[in-house]
Design brief:
430 residues; 10-stranded mixed beta sheet; 4-stranded mixed beta sheet; 30% helix; globular; alpha/beta
């Protein structure tokens, strides 16, 4: 059976939650393969809102949901999230939820370091969520991380703790902070360990088995391609690879497992935090987009910056991630505009270019080149067929497809799961 990989094709916050929720109802397993609890998905099902940051979206519908080894896991945040969802009536058991036993843990010291660095960075602030994601990935790559499997052997971690504390004690001293309290850290881990261990397992093996049984697997990406640590607007990026290619390494399945790659694309552009944003609108139009689109982060409630659709960025994201089709979201936010604009290129030092340069210095100097189109006055909210859309809205979608060189697989017209125009079913495409 075909698999589907969902990735954000902008800076995250594209509305992946709704699309993943819709696909999860058709999948046999849903897998998170990168990121941490800095990502957030909002699901609206039958009028009930569920806010997720670590748990795969399939958990709401009872679909097997797995956290792959590419994720960095805050065990305390996980416990809080599970308890909150259980209070909403969601059943989460070892049968429908699992965590890769080789996941690196986010520890309290990681969040502390994240905050200390941002506070001291001045103009160099990246705009992190201060949840310890970056420092946890650093420790993973530095081979000093505590992992989920270590929670079963906390009395035998002296050597690993030596490596961890040798690194962090030096950093903390530079900020005038005391050394890591090893005894307190171990005590915290012993307290949370039984909760996490009940879900721990070799996820690669579980996935191998369900795949052998013909299961349809949905890989759920977090953030967006433009926040990828290699391909995004570096250094204003996240600390993991957000592109579809990281499915293999982050889940334990081979590179052929990704299947149909669906890029989630908002009908305009937003980003949270610092960094370049060529089409940003710091005027009443940008404010209108933000208000109509309810542009506040699911996890942090931070206000999102808003701007016109940037076809250059999305074309680049689709190419890098091998996107087969896009899911265009929040089309209804553009209802009522007299005209709408699409960025078709950038002017850099007097020359027009058709790609995002890698240099942060050059990214900051980009000027958008716009194409203006007539808007539409009729509402698209709740549309479920092409016939329900105004002619100009259809023209807008078709022009986006041409510019990004990728077809639309679906168009979303409200947060509700069923308010979607389905063009191609990703699970039936490969």
């Amino acid at each position: 059976m075909p698999n589907v990989t969902v990735i954000g094709a902008q800076w995250g916050d594209e509305g992946k939650g709704k699309i993943v929720d819709w696909l999860a109802a058709k999948a046999d397993a849903v897998v998170r393969f990168q990121g941490g609890h800095n990502a957030g998905h909002t699901l609206v099902v039958d009028g009930t809102t569920y806010k997720l940051s670590l748990l795969p979206s399939g958990i709401v519908t009872g679909t097997l949901s797995l956290i792959g080894n590419g994720v960095v896991l805050d065990p305390w945040a996980l416990k809080d999230e599970i308890e909150r969802l259980e209070a909403q009536g969601v059943s989460i058991t070892a049968q429908n939820f699992g965590i890769a036993d080789n996941c690196a843990l986010i520890l309290p010291l990681h969040g502390e370091l994240d905050g200390l660095r941002e506070a001291a960075a001045g103009k160099g602030k990246i705009g992190t969520t201060k949840r310890g994601i970056g420092p946890a990935y650093e420790d993973k790559v530095g081979r000093r991380a505590i992992r989920v499997c270590d929670l079963s052997h906390l009395d035998e971690l002296e050597a690993q703790l030596d490596r961890l504390c040798a690194h962090h004690d030096a950093l903390r001293a530079g900020f005038g902070e005391p050394p890591v309290d090893r005894e307190a850290l171990v005590a915290q881990l012993k307290d949370i360990a039984p909760f996490v261990r009940q879900y721990a397992q070799p996820v690669w093996k579980r996935l191998r088995d369900v795949r052998a049984d013909g299961a349809r697997i949905l890989f759920e990406g977090a953030q967006g391609v433009l926040l990828d640590v290699d391909h995004g607007t570096y250094p204003f990026v996240t600390s993991s690879n957000t592109v579809s290619g990281s499915v293999a390494a982050g889940s334990g399945l081979g590179p052929g497992a990704a299947g149909f790659v669906l890029g989630i694309v908002k009908a305009y552009t937003t980003r949270v935090g610092s960094g370049p944003f060529p089409t940003e609108l710091e005027d009443e139009i940008g404010q209108r987009l933000g208000e109509r689109g309810h542009e506040f982060g699911t996890v942090t409630a931070r206000k999102r910056r808003c701007g016109w659709f940037d076809a250059v960025l999305v074309r680049q994201s689709c190419a890098i991630s091998g996107v087969h089709g896009i899911a265009l979201t929040k089309l209804d936010v553009l209802d009522g505009f007299e005209t709408v604009k699409i960025c078709t290129g950038y002017r850099l030092d007097g020359q027009v270019i058709d790609y995002l340069p890698s240099s942060a210095v050059e990214q900051a100097r980009l000027e958008p080149v716009y194409e203006e189109m007539e808007g539409w006055q009729d509402s698209t909210e709740g549309a479920r067929t092409w016939a329900d859309l105004p002619a100009q809205a259809i023209k807008y979608i078709r022009r986006i497809e041409e510019l990004i060189e990728c077809p639309a697989a679906s168009v979303s017209t409200s947060p509700e799961r069923d308010d979607t125009i389905l063009v191609r079913n990703p699970f039936a495409e490969m």
